[in-house]
Amino acid sequence: MLTDRQLIILQVIIDDFIDSAKPIGSRALSKKDNLPYSAATIRNEMADLEELGFLEKTHTSSGRVPSEKGYRYYVDHLIGPERNHHGLGIIESLTNNGIFEFEQIVQTAAEALSQLTNYTSIILGPEMFEATVKQIQVLALSNQSAVAILVTNTGHVEHRSFTLPKGISSSDLEKLVNILNDRLHGVPLFKLPEVIQNEVTSLMVKYMNGLDSSLNWIRALFTHEHAVKLYFGGKANILMQPEFNDVDRIRSFYSLMEREDEIVDLLKNTNQGIKVSIGHENEVDEIKDLSLITASYHIGGGQLGTIALIGPTRMEYKKVLSLMQSISKEMTGAMDKWYRDKS
Amino acid sequence: MLTDRQLIILQVIIDDFIDSAKPIGSRALSKKDNLPYSAATIRNEMADLEELGFLEKTHTSSGRVPSEKGYRYYVDHLIGPERNHHGLGIIESLTNNGIFEFEQIVQTAAEALSQLTNYTSIILGPEMFEATVKQIQVLALSNQSAVAILVTNTGHVEHRSFTLPKGISSSDLEKLVNILNDRLHGVPLFKLPEVIQNEVTSLMVKYMNGLDSSLNWIRALFTHEHAVKLYFGGKANILMQPEFNDVDRIRSFYSLMEREDEIVDLLKNTNQGIKVSIGHENEVDEIKDLSLITASYHIGGGQLGTIALIGPTRMEYKKVLSLMQSISKEMTGAMDKWYRDKS
DNA sequence: ATTTAGCACTCAAAACAAGAGAGTGCTAAC
DNA sequence: GTTAGCACTCTCTTGTTTTGAGTGCTAAAT
To answer: Are residues A294 and A310 part of one domain?
Structure first.
């Protein structure tokens, strides 16, 4: 329903605004190469585009600025074929020495993403629900203390130090660990608390006397929220954006960034693929004037994490989208390669 | 050299400014209870105090504001006996279930510190230099991959996933781990790279053939910077301070917060006890208009970490100092209790 | 039937002006 | 030594004017 000329004008306006952050007027537009029309003509078109809701004015006699609907249209229809970012190889370079360090990979990716865009990136670590117990070990550090270590089939390690119950013997401890390994091997993490409750407790009461209290730490070790973790990149970078020249906006942004559970919610709810939420399309008040791009990365085909980027609605969508695509692909690749052969 | 009256006036001015953040004039001061003098008298005293360098004016006819020298004097001489913050019990409540989770303790302490003050707190994790190797384990996850786990005598666990060298047999792997445990048990972390280089390498070449390349990951696992870690609390809280009403100041602050190595340097160089650095007493440019309080906490008597608090020079020194003292004592207590019996 | 030139009009932002208010320094009286 | 009084200074607020970019509309040109 938009004429070709309107399309071009819309595109040029948005492109210009994305990089200048200033409203643009008809006169300036008419000077652009791809718009061989007079200011007056463009004015008319702009008035139409405004009527259709793609543009806005900041005041009655100002230049035009893209509306959220404008950005939406831009993202959906005006972004060309993403020029291939041909894999930055950031992640690859981290794994090709044979070492696979999850935290490092994710953190590096988050930082790179922010560095390249000057927005703030957030990566949601994978949920470990489906990982299963590979081995449990308890290592005494002294007469009173020990550390318990749990390794999953995916190579994740959890550990917890604790004080030993009084009077426990090393043979008791060994027995205990044996029971645990016997019963818990292969159990997925999310079922752990349940299995411990139902199967292990009774066994332990049977074979070991007077150690009820010691069960606490076992439960604590394994009930531990296998919480998804957030990795931030360049929380400060976004401050370079002129949109953040206002102290209150900064405050509200950073206060949101500290409420990690809200952020997790924000990112979790993502289906596969890339999703762009512009301004008020976002649920959370604090980012109703920002845009949020999320992309998922998959591991092992099922579990997934999310890569996100937050910036002003005036975002370099073209660049960002192809970049996110690349990184998400790279992450998925690295994860796949690593997790593929783990049963 | 200061008269009693000047002392009181100085104190009142600083106290007032600390909580109002506004310059205070002679008239307002003369109305305070503990200053039964006329505005004119106080004006004279203030002029003297300014001449001595304890006060400043923001412009020729403004009220007075404490200078850095003023704050220094305040901190050194005018702060009364710290009312005992009688241990907030924050940390105790985390450990009395028998579980000792280092990260959790430190993170909680950092957050509490910031919460209670509305400044930003940073805690420098302990250096693990003196911890010694307790056990090394390598667990195969599949034919191609494994995870290596290192436990120290203090209960710290490091781990690293990696791809197995092609053609390594499980008996080779076992042999390898035996060698490692045999040679590395009891070796302090900071000596690890050296010992591996000198003792282990030759042994391995001797007993295992063709596995030179596999040494890479061993070295990588243990050479891993046992970097001290930073724990931040309330990076956003400091934004509530009126001093941070300026966007550029915020930018420079946050950009510093991201340069973690600089921060580590800043905190590392601390002798025992509490240290207050006011404004230009700080080395780093970005905080030359802020104050930094550092306190150390000790573990095992030797190694130590640092607790720090950053706020405007107009800081509630009285409250902060006693608070830092409490927390540092609590941390030291918890650590001591935990690490005492580990050889 | 488009496109364009011309012109009156609008509004934000910058520049300027006037007052008010808080505070000082100094002098002279207490 | 202390205080009252007063002239003076400087910021901050408020209101006014000017400027300039940009619009909408009408009428002419294509």
So the answer is: yes
Q: Which of A174, A208, A223 is at the close of a domain?
A: A223
Flag whether pLDDT at B230 surpasses 90: yes
Domain boundary among A173, A200, A223: A223
C-alpha separations of B203 from A112, A212, B186 in Å: 41, 46, 18
Let me know if residue A86 belongs to a domain: no
Q: Cβ B239–A250 below 8 Å, yes or no?
A: yes
Nucleotides of D under 7 A from a protein CB: 2-5, 8-11, 20-26
Which of B245, B242, B241, B130 is closest to B191 using CA atoms? B130
Q: Which residue range(s) make up the domain with A296?
A: 92-127+228-339
User: Cβ contacts (< 8 Å) between A227 and chain B: which residues?
Assistant: none
Q: Which amino acid belongs to residue A112?
A: A
Do the Cβ atoms of A99 and B220 come within 8 Å?
Answer: yes
A-B CB pairs within 8 A amount to 136
Give the model's pLDDT for residue A283.
Answer: 94
Q: Is B217 within 8 Å of A157 when comparing Cβ atoms?
A: no
Read off the pLDDT of residues A139-172 as tens digits, 9 standing for 90 and up: 999 888 899 999 999 899 999 898 888 778 888 8
The per-residue pLDDT for range A169-201, each reduced to its tens digit, is 888 888 889 988 999 999 998 888 888 888 877
In whole angstroms, D19 C1' to A29 CA is 22
| Chain mean position to CA A80 | 25
Which protein residue has its CA closest to C1' of D10? B61
Question: Do B112 and B88 form a contact (C-beta atoms < 8 A)?
Answer: yes
CATH number of the domain bearing residue A149? 3.30.390.10
Those residues whose C-beta lies under 8 Å from the C-beta of residue A273, and which sit 6 or more positions away, are: A295, A296
**Shortest Cα distance, chain A CAs vs residue B169, angstroms:** 17
Indicate if A102 and A235 belong to the same structural domain: yes
Answer yes or no: are the C-beta atoms of A131 and A154 closer than 8 Å: yes
For residue A135, list chain B residues with Cβ-Cβ distance below 8 A: 139
Residue B83 has pLDDT above 90, yes or no: no
Min Cα distance B159 → chain A (Å) is 7
Q: How many domains does chain A have?
A: 3
Question: Is residue A265 domain-shared with residue A314, that is, in the same domain?
Answer: yes
Task: Name the band, by pLDDT with cuts 50, 70 and 90, for residue B85.
Answer: low
Pairwise CA distance, residues B188 & B205, whole Å: 24
Query: Taking CB atoms and an 8 Å limit, are B338 and A134 in contact across chains?
Result: no
| B85 domain-assigned | no
Nearest residue to C9 via alpha carbon and C1': A61
pLDDT of the residue at A87: 65
In a domain, B182, yes or no: yes
User: pLDDT, tens digit, for every residue of B111-148?
Assistant: 999 999 999 999 998 877 778 999 999 999 988 889 99
Residue A197, min C-alpha distance to chain B (Å) = 19
Please say whether the beta carbons of A278 and A101 come within 8 A: no
Contact A296, A307 (CB under 8 A): yes
Instruction: Kindly state whether residue A175 falls inside one of the protein's structural domains.
Output: yes
